[in-house]
Amino acid sequence: MHFTGRGVLVDIEGTTSAVAYVYDVMFPFARKGIASYVAQHWDDDALASVREQFAADAGRDLATPDELTAEALRLMDGDVKATGLKTLQGLVWEAGFHSGELQAHVFADVPPALTAWREAGLDVRVYSSGSIHAQRLFFGHTEAGDLLSYFSGHYDTTTGPKREAASYTAIANAWGLAPAEVLFLSDITEELNAARAAGMQTALVVRPGNAAASPIEPPHETIESFEQITH
Ligand SMILES: CSCCC(=O)C(=O)COP(=O)(O)O
Ligand SMILES: [Mg+2]
After folding, report:
1. Among 87, 100, 161, 230, which has the minimal tally of Cβ within 10 Å of its Cβ?
2. Does the beta carbon of 129 sit less than 6 angstroms from any atom of ligand 1?
3. Of the ligands numbered here, which is closest to the C-alpha atom of 185?
4. Which atom of ligand 1 is nearest to the CA of 138?
5. Which tens digit of pLDDT belongs to each residue from 29-64?
């Protein structure tokens, strides 16, 4: 596809990176580490906002490390993209990325595309349910090296849910671009529908291991590699 805008907004799981890496490596790492992280950091500032977010989402105070951990694991069982859970996962992943136990997967076409897009003067940003802290850890520690400098902005669920048009309007406003100047890349039709409703250009990214995307009329343009996007 030929893209004539100024910004590219990328999803992570199923778009830049394999769903299996997130589900089979990162989520189990978080699941294993949450109880001890919460117990050790219960009184830390970093956990204070997590505790508030969990309490607000649950509608009740989670007064002990065990209660918060149980709620986090319950949310993880349902793959709920709650802001508090995503912030907590990012804090647990931090040690793994810093030690080298976690090294983020990116598809082989991603690093050369990021280079080409930068050379073409495009502004590339990330929108993921993973917290901004987790996104920065992820792209700072990939199998292909540190890719963080290719991204000039990050958005997460603190801007809004990924399936709501208002989130994409807010991102474009924060970015200082008209929505039509932004191409959003994702594996999830409902996210693309929301971006399209906000006026963004869209492309459905089909990667090995992705679930079949929900059909929509008119369909989103489909790509299997970032190489297919020229500018
Ligand atoms: C920072 S990588 C972890 C991604 C994550 O936690 C997740 O839920 C996947 O969300 P995405 O919006 O990238 O599909
Ligand atoms: Mg995705």
Report:
1. 100
2. yes
3. 2
4. 1
5. 999 999 999 999 999 998 999 999 999 999 999 999
> What global pTM score does this model have?
0.96
Taking every pair of C-alpha atoms in the chain, what is the biggest distance, in angstroms? 53
Tokens of 181: 């100047």
ipTM of the complex: 0.96
Q: Which amino acid is at 87?
A: T
Q: Are 57 and 72 in contact (CB under 8 A)?
A: no
Q: Where is 7: in which H helix or E strand?
A: strand 7-10
Would you tell me how many other CB atoms lie within 10 Å of the CB of residue 53? 18
How far is residue 89's CA from residue 69's CA, in Å, rounded to a whole number? 11
- How would you class 77 by CB atoms within 10 Å of its CB: exposed for 0-12, middle for 13-18, buried for 19 or more? exposed
Is residue 201 within 8 Å of residue 182, measured between CB atoms? yes
Residue 19 alpha carbon to ligand 2 centre in Å: 8
Residue with the nearest Cα to atom 4 of ligand 1? 130
- What's the CA-to-centroid distance between 38 and ligand 1, angstroms? 21
Beta-strand ranges (E) seen in 140-192 are 153-155, 182-186
CB 170 within 8 A of CB 159: yes
Q: Is the CB of 17 under 6 A from ligand 1?
A: no
**Structural domains in the chain plus CATH codes:** 7-17+104-228 (3.40.50.1000), 22-99 (1.10.720)
